Amino acid sequence: MASTKRNVAIVGTGLIGRAWAAIFARAGWNVRLTDPHVPTLAAAPRLIRDELHALARHGLASDPDDAVARSRSRRASGRP
User: Taking Cα atoms as reference points, which of 52, 79, 76 lies closest to residue 66?
Assistant: First the structure.
């Protein structure tokens, strides 16, 4: 059987990038985040966790902490 491990990279961790990250992480994908703006990138994991916990309170995410654990961030290089 083929591997079910799936990976996705999200470029930009503003509102839309974080929303996509939460959707993929909730679905079991490994998520890699990147953004050239360090403060935005640094805040993303906490904001994604908060969103996943909000979804869980409404029955829309079963294990938000596990989903957050699949998200990793890295600063994009090549920009000042």
Answer: 52
pLDDT for the residue numbered 3: 59
The H or E element spanning position 30 is: strand 30-35
35's enclosing H/E stretch is strand 30-35
Torsion over CA: 11, 15, 18, 19 (sign): negative
- Report the pLDDT value the prediction gives residue 50, as an integer from 0 to 100: 95
Q: For residue 72, what are the β-bridge partners?
A: 32
CATH homologous superfamily for the domain 7-75? NAD(P)-binding Rossmann-like Domain (3.40.50.720)
Kindly list the averaged pLDDT for each block of 10 residues, start to end, along the chain of length 80.
80 96 94 95 94 93 87 68
